[in-house]
Amino acid sequence: MEVIYILIGVSLLVAIAFLVAFIWAVKNGQFEDTYTPSVRILWDEEKQQKQIREK
Amino acid sequence: MTLQTERSVQQTCFHCGEVCDDATIFHDEKPFCCQGCLLVYELLTDNQLLNYYSLENQPGMKAREADLHTGYAYLDDSATRAKLIDFADDHISKVTFRIPQMHCSACIWLLENLNKLNPGITRSRVQFLRKEVTIVFQHDRISLGKLVELLARIGYAPELQFDRLEANTKSASPQRSLYLKLGIAGFAFGNIMLFSFPEYLDIRDDLGLTLQSFFGYLNILLSLPVLLYSSRDYFVSAWSAVRQGMLNIDFPISLGILAIFCRSTYEILSASGSGYLDSFAGLVFFLLLGKLFQQKSYDALSFDRDYKSYFPISVTKKVGQSQRIISLSDLAIGDQIVVRNQELVPADAVLLSEQAFIDYSFVTGESVPVRKRKGELLFAGGRQVGQAIEMSVMKDVSQSYLTSLWNNDVFQKPAQNALTNLANTVAKYFTLAVLNIALFTVLYWLFTEPGVVVSAVTAVLIIACPCALALSIPFTFGNTLRIFGKSAFFLKNADTVERLAKIDTIVFDKTGTLTWQSKVGVTFQSAEHEPLSATEKIMVGSLVRHSTHPLSYQISRWLKLEKSTTVTDFAELQGKGIMAEIHGQLVRLGARRWILADGKLIESDGDSANHSQVFLEIAGRYRGHFNVANNYRPHLQGLLAKLRSRYRVYLLSGDNDREKGNLEPFFGKNNGTTRMHFNQSPEDKLMFVKKLQGEGNHVMMIGDGLNDAGALKQSDVGVSISEDVASFSPACDAILDARRFEQLGALLHFSKLSYRVVLLSFGISFLYNLIGLSFAVSGMLSPLFAAILMPISSISVVAFATITTRLLAMKLRIN
């Protein structure tokens, strides 16, 4: 049953990874503007396509 | 008799959606209302940005004349520039502008595609809720001035107010650190609960016991960031209160948090128990959740504006024969400046032009423009109506008549001390009670069983931690704040709800609050089916321009004439009307009995509460009459009748008392005390509110202009009424959308109800505390019991608070 120590360590690491992701998201300002991205996602991808073509 | 309205082709501008009048321009088979809109369309077409029009119908904004003709070159002055720019290196600069005009997804799209309009712009990013756009640009390819000019050209002139020059401090939002604290507390809470399972299940075999101690150490590790980071604010707040000799709600919370943590750590390290770290993390998590819920903020609104937010950032200075646009902070005494139509006079100055019409509604509340002649002093804050005028600056911007209001003590005082509110009053007694119970427990066990003292006392402190108590206010008031927000009544913070509930006196400002600038207030009814010709309009316009009567002003506004003609022999006859000779013809405008003295019959319903009539005669011929709607807000009568039955209601007006008769039905005839006060200066208003407060009243001030700023600030709750909530409003505690004005009574009632909900939730949480304490005092607190009681009490209080407020809102039909 000693394997449980490893499993717990792994589970904690996974949890910490999510915490770090959350902290990154907050620091990145993703929680400050909750509206604009919802509009942005609906635009046609014309802009990106052009950028791809230029490459 | 026909009702003559503007004859309009029912065609709306392809760009801005406004109804096009006679001068419609057609381009690409699309109608445009003006050259400005067409120019934007062409600019966007040339740059393959037509997508703008497919995202929304008619998304554009009519560019404001003033924005287009202002030069922005002064922005490139290095001092001004440095204050506006967020960040700059050798090649790129980053700047953030507030653009109140943005309103739809097409706006966002266009503003984020600015790089197609000018290659010098690297990237632009919109924050729609704050109505902000952050632009990164290469300053060697496009200057700041040119960038702003580009924005103005496409109808998105950024807000450039004087306060932007004062300080450029952008602190990261306080929300950000709260999210982090909450995230960490939640993370710790979940994991500690998981690691406490062996304890919950009471596994007593070997593996269970070794795991228990291993998990105990892990739990301490997980709790450390919660103690040191997440709950820091509570310690800081409690400590600063104690240092001022006060006890606030954060004191018993901090005590409880510390007691749980220390006892749990001791138990785990000494292997004498498993502690209550799950309750500890859960407690902090719930408390922070409450805090987050309470901190609903309205990004697009600003509650802390002073005069600097009203003033333009630039002013046109006259140097010799040429004009130069300079930054307002560079304005010096003795400078000659030019103020155009609808621009503000930025500092006290002497008029150099022949005459000016200054609208002081901003400063005094007086709604009719005042005529000033050459050599007279113009006060800062007045708005010029009509032609551009020149003036010579007499005083610094910060020492003008208007701005001196801000030197009053009210504005120097820090915001109202939050320690006086309900939570902290309760907390004071609560803390004293808890400390007494703890003392009693110590004494009792000291003489009976000294070994139990520490565990019993810590148990008392843990269980008495007023978690549910501390949650009832944020959730009730937070929810109330949201419900208010849906009704377009925006509060600065949740504390305002509490102050709102205590209001017993309401003071109204007249201009802009009880009255409003209706757009369709005037109609002309001609006598012989013959509309006014253009010349006649100019004649009437020139005549009314000479009168300061409010009806003349309304007609003048309605005519919207640029041109005027010479008027001779002007006379204003008290109670009758005005007359003058124009183009050799006698024009008379005034009351029915004066114009129609010879008893001509006319089908008209006469004056009424809703409108006044003004009769027109040109060269002896009766031409018809104007119907001028009284510009009181709709439903005023009903609302005031309702309010008067529950509150003391007063009226303060910067205007003179000519409307006293009209307002009497609303405010009631005087019985003993005067309810209406006229000719009130901004200081008078402030002193009036102060006097009412001195008599022990809780005063709500409702106003809209800068002239009310002092009273709004002094009052317990200052409410600013706004036709467009995103536009400027003076510093206040709440902003009410003018369209919801009639709801005011219901909203006030609701705040009182939610105050009662808080008291009820207090009752519930005391009940939990009593149950818990009876266990704790007897020294029988098991970790499992604590782990269950804590969340149950919190969740039930939160559920009670949110559900009751919502039900009450539904019952009152708010939102």
Fold and architecture overview:
The complex is a heterodimer of chains A (55) and B (815). Chain A has a domain at 31-55. The longest helix of chain A has 25 residues, at 3-27. Chain A has 55 residues and is mainly α. In chain A, 71% of the residues lie in helices and 0% in strands. Chain A has helices at 3-27, 36-40, 46-54. In chain B, strand 20 (568-573) and strand 21 form a beta hairpin. The longest helix of chain B is centred in the C-terminal third of the chain and has 34 residues, at 744-777. With 815 residues, chain B is of the alpha+beta class. In chain B, helix 8 (174-195) runs antiparallel to helix 13 (277-294) and helix 16 (453-463) runs antiparallel to helix 27 (744-777). Among the domains of chain B are: 3-41, no CATH class; 65-166, Alpha-Beta Plaits, CATH 3.30.70.100; 492-515 and 633-748, Rossmann fold (3-Layer(aba) Sandwich), CATH 3.40.50.1000; 522-629, Calcium-transporting ATPase, cytoplasmic domain N (3-Layer(aba) Sandwich). Chain B is built from 28 helices and 29 strands. The two termini of chain B are 43 Å apart. The chains are: A mainly alpha (55), B alpha+beta (815). Chain A binds chain B through residues 1, 4-5, 8, 12, 15, 18-19, 22-23, 26-27, 29, 31-36, 39-40, 42-44, 46-47, and chain B through 51, 55, 105, 108-109, 112-113, 126-130, 173, 175-176, 179-180, 183-184, 187, 190-191, 195, 207, 211, 214, 218.
State the helical fraction of chain A.
over 70%
The total beta strand count of chain A reads 0
Strand order of the largest sheet of chain B: 1-19-24-23-22-21-20
CATH class of the domain at 492-515 and 633-748 in chain B: Alpha Beta
Average residue-wise pLDDT of chain B: 79
The largest interface is:
A-B, 26 and 27 residues
CATH fold-level label of the domain at 492-515 and 633-748 in chain B: Rossmann fold
Residue-averaged pLDDT of chain A, rounded?
79
